[in-house]
Amino acid sequence: MVNIVINGKQYEVHEDITVLQACKENGIDIPTLCYDERLEPDSSCRLCVVEVEGKRNLITSCSLKVEDGMNIETHSKKVIKARKDILDLLFSNHPNDCLTCEKSGNCKLQNYCYDYNVKAGSYKGEKRNLPIDDSNHFYYHDPNKCILCGKCVRVCSDLQGTSAIGLNERGFRTHVGTPSKNGLEDSDCVSCGNCVSACPVGALMPKSRESFREWETKSTLTTCPYCGVGCQLELITKGNQVVDSKPYKGPSNNGLLCVKGKFGYPFINHPDRLKTPLIKKNGKFEEASWEEALNLIVSKIKETKEKYGANALGGFTSARCTNEENYLFQKLFRAAIGTNNIDHCARLCHASTVSGLATTLGSGAMTNSINEVLDSDVIFIIGSNTTENHPVIATKMKQAKKKGAKIIVADPRKIELADKADIFLQIKPGTNIAVLNGMMNYIIENELYDKDYIEERTENFEEVKESLIEYTPEKVAEICGVNKDDIIKAARMYAESDKAGIYYAMGITQHITGTNSVMAISNLALMCGNVGKENAGVNPLRGQNNVQGACDMGGLPSDLPGYQKVFKEEIAEKFEKAWGVSLPREVGMTMSEILDSVKMLYIMGENPMLSDPDINHVKHSLERIDFLVVQDIFLTETAELADVVLPAASFAEKDGTFTNTERRVQRVRKVIESIGDSKADWQILMEIMNKLGYPQKYRHPSEIMEEIASVTPQYGGITYDRIETEGIQWPCLDKDHPGTKYLYKDAIARGKGLFFPVYHTGSAETTDKEYPYILTTGRVLYQYHTRTMTGRVEKLNEKVPESYIEINEVTANKLGVKDSEKVKVTSRRGSIDIKVKVTDIVEDNVMFIPFHFAEGAANYLTNTKADSAAKIPELKVAAVNVEKIQRSC
Ligand SMILES: Nc1nc2c(c(=O)[nH]1)N[C@H]1C(S)=C(S)[C@@H](COP(=O)(O)OP(=O)(O)OC[C@H]3O[C@@H](n4cnc5c(=O)[nH]c(N)nc54)[C@H](O)[C@@H]3O)O[C@H]1N2
Ligand SMILES: Nc1nc2c(c(=O)[nH]1)N[C@H]1C(S)=C(S)[C@@H](COP(=O)(O)OP(=O)(O)OC[C@H]3O[C@@H](n4cnc5c(=O)[nH]c(N)nc54)[C@H](O)[C@@H]3O)O[C@H]1N2
Ligand code: SF4
Ligand code: SF4
Ligand code: SF4
Ligand SMILES: [Mo]
């Protein structure tokens, strides 16, 4: 600590901070235009100048480190004069249209001019007259309003890692621009809007649908409803309308968002929102009262249970809903109905992670934290298209790369991160175990493994060592279709680094070999001592906003909240006591089993008619079911088939919590009133339990969290009070526990890390004469799953308006098809017509379809064959045939 004097008053501050930081910490306001605490100081606007005793010139406080005995004046005459001059000069070049500028009221230049009494630019400077770039779908750039603070350029390159924009030309004509003359739309820009959020003036502005003035709005902190990164954001509302979204500096996003968090909010107030319960009568939906709809559901529950027993009912809970809602959903099924037939989309997603890591480590969650990637030495990304699907995590990977980290990518597609990678292994789909075993074979042959760690913290190494003998880099290179030397290089790079983290997602899990592939990852990490270590670990990137939470809350047929097994007597008894009922002990059915066998199904927030494999089969199953309830925010393809549809309130209309991929429990807040007559899912579930004669009396979701904490050890210390400003990472065992940044520091959950031998086996479907191509499926940045939400955001749809199939140029030539032409794609299960995108992202004979679209839906083609342990279907490999559609004349 050092002692300094600011404006005549003594302060004790940390020695490694700047004068600007010292002032901020002590509530002394210093104006800045170019400063951003996340970036290196740039000192270009010079507005933060201060006077320091003994120095002749004014010094920019953002770049000045404190020194013991320093005497600083922040608002001396000299300082104020300098600031006035700077503002005057800036304003002289500025368009001076504050009356009509959308930024008015929230513009730093305007505010400072007011604060410093700068009335009009007194310099007779020339005003600029540069063209406005409105080519981007989401925001525009008006260079005439730009004050050249450079923040946008630095945010884009240093934080976002995209470098789409820079400062073009020199002198008076200096302006922010893209390398190409065609502007933003023709650049690398991914429309994250992080530059827009950083711009202090109206030069970078969202093209909002609704116009509003800052003072008419309210801002509420909440959590992004899309992916599992759990970015914190503020929703800006005018009346009951959400009109903007702004990044908030949360622990996992550090003030960054991706395009969906920033611009993906218009679904909330979309006219298509379900506003009233619907009951199907004579094949047609009719509006109904809540009373009528809920009574019908309750009578059907009773009737089905009486006739066929509790196990004739099943429910899909929702990774889109809050923890509190997921907790109540499973409580409804287990305690009030009496069945464990509960499952959710984790079955299609990370079921193999849960089963694989439960075996080898004892728990299926991400071991380390998002921010730890920043200080990793090696980042190994396998089967995760991180830039499109966990975009804010990808920004941190790129930041780490700038700091010197090495990146290895293994993916059949040349994804964006492949370009940034030091080694890119473009493996064939379905060859993960081979490539991982090949790396381990080399590590063992060359004794690059961590002997002490293996000795102390693991078991069964010898068996795995034995199992790897046949996986020589030569052999593996052939299986995977990559260069042997690259496998060796990757093995060396991973094993020789001190802190190496593995990041994986659907490219690993969605295979019939999913569980084994996850265990291969675990073997590799254990072998090199990367589990229980900071900046390393085994990191399954969880997909949905609250899929981690939906699993934690017991949305699985075998697990009560906190992964406590339904079949363990002492566990069942504990919950029987807590809930005052008797509970079933037998494990329930999984998603596909439920679809195939129950009489009554209750789906909360899922859309299997598009997201499950083999849609023809799903449709058949749903039609077979006697009574189907769908509770959603929109009338989905699945809801169309329901007997009763219940309108749910969206994340913006309710309080609760989501748990992100790094196990962080964060608040979701009610921002506006429920749309129409919709109700929060927790309220609906509570009413149903009440009507079933199992009274529940929660007045607020915080009371549900109190109950969760009392029965779920990992959430034992979570309360709304504690997570008011920043979420806590579980395990958080009691009220004094700070939460857990990374797992297994002292001990791995199962005791010792288990090495488990796994062998490469092929995919369920192989190519043959009839179906000669491999189809893999996945996602794109601008769309989210079945598009119930992103499909209702006009600008996102403009970016990716329709389905397509990626085909390599060589394959396209063989097929005689050109870019944008239509083809018929057929698998053993169905066929679709779809537009061709000729690309070098995929290799010859491998194809890719994003599964988002109802028209040309990939899931007509995909395979239901599933991993035997996790029951996750092989959504990443199907054999298909492709034919050019001949145009009739
Ligand atoms: N924009 C957007 N973001 C999302 C979502 C969304 O729908 N849209 N969904 C969220 C959800 S729920 C999830 S689960 C995550 C999913 O996130 P990801 O897993 O990143 O998404 P995918 O596109 O399904 O697949 C990832 C990668 O796996 C590769 N792959 C295919 N087969 C193989 C293989 O055999 N081996 C290897 N190594 N790689 C393979 C694909 O080429 C693709 O690049 O995204 C989340 N984020
Ligand atoms: N071919 C192929 N298929 C796949 C995948 C793949 O990679 N390839 N990936 C799979 C994966 S990983 C996943 S996670 C699944 C996702 O599959 P789903 O979960 O079925 O897909 P979503 O579109 O996210 O469906 C969520 C539903 O919840 C609704 N919703 C949103 N908020 C709320 C709310 O607050 N309350 C209620 N009641 N409803 C709400 C939405 O409108 C939407 O209808 O898809 C899987 N399907
Ligand atoms: S929107 Fe994002 S990617 Fe595009 S220029 Fe701005 S910061 Fe860069
Ligand atoms: S556009 Fe905005 S953030 Fe970028 S340099 Fe100009 S004023 Fe600064
Ligand atoms: S990265 Fe995920 S959580 Fe963050 S803004 Fe984008 S979709 Fe939302
Ligand atoms: Mo997922």
From TrEMBL:
<keyword id="KW-0001">2Fe-2S</keyword>
<dbReference type="GO" id="GO:0051539">
    <property type="term" value="F:4 iron, 4 sulfur cluster binding"/>
</dbReference>
<dbReference type="InterPro" id="IPR017900">
    <property type="entry name" value="4Fe4S_Fe_S_CS"/>
</dbReference>
<dbReference type="GO" id="GO:0043546">
    <property type="term" value="F:molybdopterin cofactor binding"/>
</dbReference>
<dbReference type="InterPro" id="IPR006656">
    <property type="entry name" value="Mopterin_OxRdtase"/>
</dbReference>
<dbReference type="InterPro" id="IPR001041">
    <property type="entry name" value="2Fe-2S_ferredoxin-type"/>
</dbReference>
<dbReference type="Pfam" id="PF22117">
    <property type="entry name" value="Fer4_Nqo3"/>
</dbReference>
<protein>
    <submittedName>
        <fullName>Formate dehydrogenase H</fullName>
        <ecNumber>1.2.1.2</ecNumber>
    </submittedName>
</protein>
<dbReference type="GO" id="GO:0046872">
    <property type="term" value="F:metal ion binding"/>
</dbReference>
<dbReference type="GO" id="GO:0022904">
    <property type="term" value="P:respiratory electron transport chain"/>
</dbReference>
<dbReference type="Pfam" id="PF00384">
    <property type="entry name" value="Molybdopterin"/>
</dbReference>
<dbReference type="InterPro" id="IPR041924">
    <property type="entry name" value="Formate_Dh-H_N"/>
</dbReference>
<dbReference type="InterPro" id="IPR006657">
    <property type="entry name" value="MoPterin_dinucl-bd_dom"/>
</dbReference>
<dbReference type="InterPro" id="IPR006963">
    <property type="entry name" value="Mopterin_OxRdtase_4Fe-4S_dom"/>
</dbReference>
<feature type="domain" description="4Fe-4S Mo/W bis-MGD-type">
    <location>
        <begin position="217"/>
        <end position="272"/>
    </location>
</feature>
<dbReference type="Pfam" id="PF10588">
    <property type="entry name" value="NADH-G_4Fe-4S_3"/>
</dbReference>
<comment type="similarity">
    <text>Belongs to the complex I 75 kDa subunit family.</text>
</comment>
<dbReference type="InterPro" id="IPR054351">
    <property type="entry name" value="NADH_UbQ_OxRdtase_ferredoxin"/>
</dbReference>
<dbReference type="GO" id="GO:0003954">
    <property type="term" value="F:NADH dehydrogenase activity"/>
</dbReference>
<dbReference type="Pfam" id="PF01568">
    <property type="entry name" value="Molydop_binding"/>
</dbReference>
<dbReference type="InterPro" id="IPR006478">
    <property type="entry name" value="Formate_DH_asu"/>
</dbReference>
<dbReference type="InterPro" id="IPR041925">
    <property type="entry name" value="CT_Formate-Dh_H"/>
</dbReference>
<dbReference type="InterPro" id="IPR027467">
    <property type="entry name" value="MopterinOxRdtase_cofactor_BS"/>
</dbReference>
<dbReference type="InterPro" id="IPR050123">
    <property type="entry name" value="Prok_molybdopt-oxidoreductase"/>
</dbReference>
<feature type="domain" description="4Fe-4S ferredoxin-type">
    <location>
        <begin position="180"/>
        <end position="209"/>
    </location>
</feature>
<feature type="domain" description="4Fe-4S ferredoxin-type">
    <location>
        <begin position="137"/>
        <end position="170"/>
    </location>
</feature>
<keyword id="KW-0408">Iron</keyword>
<dbReference type="InterPro" id="IPR017896">
    <property type="entry name" value="4Fe4S_Fe-S-bd"/>
</dbReference>
<dbReference type="GO" id="GO:0051537">
    <property type="term" value="F:2 iron, 2 sulfur cluster binding"/>
</dbReference>
<keyword id="KW-0411">Iron-sulfur</keyword>
<dbReference type="InterPro" id="IPR006655">
    <property type="entry name" value="Mopterin_OxRdtase_prok_CS"/>
</dbReference>
<dbReference type="GO" id="GO:0008863">
    <property type="term" value="F:formate dehydrogenase (NAD+) activity"/>
</dbReference>
<dbReference type="GO" id="GO:0015942">
    <property type="term" value="P:formate metabolic process"/>
</dbReference>
<dbReference type="GO" id="GO:0016020">
    <property type="term" value="C:membrane"/>
</dbReference>
<dbReference type="Pfam" id="PF04879">
    <property type="entry name" value="Molybdop_Fe4S4"/>
</dbReference>
<dbReference type="InterPro" id="IPR036010">
    <property type="entry name" value="2Fe-2S_ferredoxin-like_sf"/>
</dbReference>
<keyword id="KW-0479">Metal-binding</keyword>
<keyword id="KW-0560">Oxidoreductase</keyword>
<keyword id="KW-1278">Translocase</keyword>
<dbReference type="InterPro" id="IPR009010">
    <property type="entry name" value="Asp_de-COase-like_dom_sf"/>
</dbReference>
<dbReference type="InterPro" id="IPR019574">
    <property type="entry name" value="NADH_UbQ_OxRdtase_Gsu_4Fe4S-bd"/>
</dbReference>
<keyword id="KW-0520">NAD</keyword>
